[in-house]
Amino acid sequence: MTSMAESVLESLKRQLETEEQSERLVKIPSDTYSKLASHMQNLRRISNSNGEDLQSRLIRKQATILQGMVSQLLRLRLGKAKKAETTTDLLPEEKYVYGLHSEFKTREGKFISAIMSGYPSFFALAQKEVMSKKVTVRFLRDVGEIMGFDLKRYGPFRVHDLAIVPAANAEVFVANGDALLT
């Protein structure tokens, strides 16, 4: 176990150092993140998460170090991709994160632009989009029929029922302890 942990940590350390020293994105193994996740899974399996024994404390410390190193590696790589204005050298999972970041930046730009251009209709459309979003919830308690934010009727619901409801209603259910997002 120890040699595998050292191997994972050393490999991540080398990748991070190489990435920090290079101006361009460095090619990293396609299984980098899945190996790290598997390693964490193994650590969690052998650790008592609330345990105060030495092994559990060391595992929690290693998890904290890994989290920091992975975050640093990802930020470095995404920053380089942004600067180069290309994602061709990113791994697919990095492209996933980059895409979410890009979508956020695009929406933020549209939001500011709508204000500066005097387009109040943009906000009506944004509200409509948010209000029409639906999510799946699992009920923890019985809940009678309700009127959704979309003005449609939902329910009644029983404990353990799964339902697709407007996101705004789901927020209320979750806040009241009536349901969980799935």
Question: Secondary-structure blueprint of this entry?
Answer:
Blueprint: H1 2-21, H2 32-46, H3 54-84, H4 92-117, H5 120-132, E1 134-139, E2 146-147, E3 153-154, E4 162-166, H6 167-175, E5 179-181
Antiparallel strand pairs: 1-4, 1-5, 2-3
Describe this structure in words.
There is one protein chain. With 182 residues, the protein is mainly α. The chain has 6 helices and 5 strands, in the order H-H-H-H-H-E-E-E-E-H-E. The chain has helices spanning 2-21, 32-46, 54-84, 92-117, 120-132, 167-175; strands at 134-139, 146-147, 153-154, 162-166, 179-181. The protein has a 3-stranded antiparallel beta sheet. A two-stranded antiparallel sheet has the order 2-3. A hairpin with a 5-residue loop joins strand 2 and strand 3 (153-154). The longest helix has 31 residues, at 54-84.
- In percent, how helical is the residue content? 55-70%
**Would you tell me the overall average pLDDT?**
90
How much strand?
Answer: 5-15%
Number of H- or I-type helical stretches: 6
Distance between the first and last residues' Cα: 34 Å
Radius of gyration: 23 Å
Largest sheet: 3 strands, antiparallel
Strand order in the largest sheet: 4-1-5
**Order of helices and strands, N to C?**
HHHHHEEEEHE
Number of strands: 5
Q: Which assembly state applies to the chains in this document?
A: single chain
The shape, in one word, is flat
**Helices and strands: which structural class?**
mainly alpha
Low-confidence regions: none
